[in-house]
Design brief:
5-stranded antiparallel beta sheet
Length: about 200
């Protein structure tokens, strides 16, 4: 009997093992995230979208500044009693590149904010702003986006390089714990990257 009891308990322990799940969202737009059964911890990582690079004055070959990278926030929660509860999220859209013209380029556009907020699961709203666009015709690089609401960290994105006689680099995206780099700023005359959101369950 004792052997049978031990065998049964072994089967129960094996069936209770939770395989970690990582869900990554990089397409811009809104959605709903549902906590899976069996998870005990949740890590949320949020990246804002990258700004677009400034355009080039083609007459003088003066490149615009690089776009700023998106901000980054990270939170952790215990979810052992929260299976089936939901959170809402929105992935930010990339900043468009500035146009390049013979009579002077135009500035790059800012990336938009990514965020995660409470649904039936109560959390502190996480908001990671998009990077700013680079200034055209040898101008400044875009400033990186700020971030707020993370219970672990809130990090400002990297700024883009200043434009000039050579193409300027966009602000590098930040690498997270379970994904990245995401939210890169665009180089001179190039669009930035969409933001991203990662939900990791263990």
């Amino acid at each position: 009997m004792a052997g049978a009891l031990n065998f049964t308990m072994g089967i129960f322990a094996a069936s209770a093992t939770f395989t970690p799940i990582t869900r990554v969202y990089t397409a811009s737009g809104a959605g709903t995230e549902t906590i899976p059964s069996g998870a005990t911890t949740l890590t949320i990582e949020v990246w804002g979208a990258g700004g677009g690079g400034g355009g080039t004055d083609l007459r003088t070959a003066t490149f615009g500044g690089g776009g700023g990278g998106g901000g980054y926030s990270k939170s952790t929660y215990t979810v052992s009693a929260d299976a089936g509860k939901t959170m809402s999220y929105n992935v930010g859209a990339l900043g468009a590149a500035g146009a390049s013209n013979l009579n002077g380029g135009t500035n790059g556009k800012a990336g938009t904010q990514s965020n995660v907020a409470s649904g039936t699961m109560s959390i502190t709203t996480m908001a990671s702003n998009g990077g700013n666009g680079g200034v055209s015709n040898g101008g400044a690089g875009g400033v990186g986006g700020t971030a707020s609401g993370g219970t672990v960290t809130n990090t400002t994105g990297n700024s883009g390089a200043t434009g000039g006689t050579a193409a300027a680099a966009g602000g590098a995206g930040i690498t997270g714990t379970y994904g990245g780099p995401y939210g890169n700023g665009g180089n001179s005359g190039a669009a930035g990257a969409n933001g991203a959101i990662v939900f990791h369950y263990a």
